Amino acid sequence: MSWLGRLLERPVPVERRLADALVAWNAGDYGVALDLWAPLAQQGHPRAQSNMGAAFLEGRGVERDHDKAVVWLRRAADQGDSGGQRNLALCYYEGWGVPQDQVEAALWYQKAAEQDDADAQDMLSWMKLLGGGCPQDYTGARRWAEKAAAQGRAGAMARLGDIFHNALGVERDPAMASKWWTQAARFGHAEAQAMLGAAYLAGKGVARDPTEALHWLLRAQAGGAGELAEGFLREARAHTKISQRAEAERRAGEPLP
What we know:
The protein is an all-alpha fold. 72% of the residues lie in helices and 0% in strands. The radius of gyration is 23 Å and the shape is elongated.
């Protein structure tokens, strides 16, 4: 046998197969990805099991089947895979394939969050803030939101703005609230854009600037937070000249920084 034939017969490393499957999945070739993941999942590889569970959860490459999703996700989660833990938590939160159970959801989100899973950290922060599935814990909510925000989760940034604005476990701090809303707003978070616009309108935590206020409020309205922005928009328009309104509209039409 030639050297090329021997090379082609060599087994492909697991990490290479996982990487190839992910490339196929991201390209929309779900069947190819599943053909690569399925044997690894059957062999007990947790990441492949987690990905099989996600496929059944989303109905990509296979028919959506929450019961099968839970089977694969639980196998992955029990082996410590953070993605499997996070998605199993989602199943408990929504009642997909298992009885709805926010306490169990919070437990699995906690496990994934402790492994630095940003989406789990974000969700756990939200649950602790509201006291859903776990005791209300403003300090814990802020801590997990900070971790998720450090990984670029705009929802966590906006939540931190709300925490400092509403003095939830911290002293009220308009400057910190505006700082976090600004970060979330630049990521396109519509509610944060509305709150930032209101801050500029009132001059709380930032210098009063009706033009900048209108700019962010227009972005919020376009992004789906029109109900929250509506009252502030009327006031911002009333406190700006025609030239300032034109400038705000121009800024709102530009790509976010």
